[in-house]
Write a structure and sequence with these properties.
By secondary structure, the protein is α+β, with helices and mostly antiparallel strands. It contains three helices and four strands.
């Protein structure tokens, strides 16, 4: 059984900038991939064509070098979220077509994965990928 916890973090100015970059890049990749899928769908005018190879976040890094500055797993999770939203739409049309992410939306979050200790908690601080320093935090509440 997996457990989840919510934490309130208290980043310094440098960490806030890093988070803002990550939020922006995750939103950019999601929107760019959605636009590419819409373009491919309009070109085929049919249901999902399984033979189409959509670009990955890694392929966008050559064209958009600022994507190299943020956690690659956060970008990969944005791709997985879009794939899930797209599959849900074709499975059940009542869920609605995936929408572009807005900069004005106040729900800034991203998901990363723990690979070989890249995410860890030590003495009230959390270490996240691509952050040079650890972020001060306080446990908010356990999740069900």
């Amino acid at each position: 059984m997996l457990k989840a916890y919510k934490y309130r973090i208290y980043p310094n100015q440098e960490q806030r900038i890093a988070f803002a970059k990550t939020f922006g890049c995750v939103r950019f990749v999601y929107n760019k991939m959605l636009a590419d899928r819409i373009h491919a769908y309009k070109a085929s005018q049919e249901s999902v064509d399984k033979s189409i190879q959509y670009p990955t976040p890694a392929q966008y890094k050559a064209e958009f070098p600022f994507l190299k500055e943020v956690d690659s797993l956060a970008l990969a999770n944005a791709q997985m979220n879009l794939n899930k939203a797209y599959a849900n739409f074709f499975r059940d049309k009542s869920t609605g077509f995936p929408k572009f992410k807005s900069k004005k939306d106040n729900h800034h979050r991203y998901t990363t994965n723990n690979q070989k200790g890249t995410v860890r908690i030590e003495n009230g601080y959390i270490k996240l990928p691509k952050l040079k320093t650890m972020v001060r935090m306080k446990q908010h509440r356990p999740c069900a």
